[in-house]
Prior knowledge:
The two termini are 24 Å apart. The chain has four helices and seven strands, in the order βααβββαβαββ. A hairpin with a 2-residue loop joins strand 2 and strand 3 (66-74). It is an alpha+beta fold. The protein has one domain: Gcn5-related N-acetyltransferase (GNAT) (Aminopeptidase), CATH 3.40.630.
Amino acid sequence: MGNAPEVVIRPADGTAEHPRLVQIWRSAVDATHDFLSPQDRDAIEARLAAEYFPHVRLHVAAVDGEAVGFAGTAAGSLEMLFVDAAHRGRGIGGALLAHVLGRGTVTRVDVNEQNAQAAGFYARWGFEVVGRSELDGEGRPYPLLHMALARAAVRRGGDA
Length: 160
């Protein structure tokens, strides 16, 4: 196995980058969110750029100048973190999470209960389940785990 790719975390390049971020989202969701109905997946995808992206601070992970993942934060919460399916398992999600945690403002995240891999990822970074909702934020039947960064958690990733 060769060296891990150099991941550069940068602010999103405005609305011009939104189509690529939507592609990343779709790739990631197709790979990890098999519990979503096709109708719900398409409805969320249609609203990403116009309704969801404007309400978060977007952080983009790029490898060799190409956007391969992103995170969105707002009001102390990690609202979204997605990595293109072709780049999963290469430390990109960890680099994004280390970056937003390194800013010192993110302390919580909601995770789809059916996405056990994501819940485990956040648990490894020191998040603990502090609550549960039967429905997602849009009232759809996808339970959410509410996770908060444990006070004693050791933050990995340094000054990312």
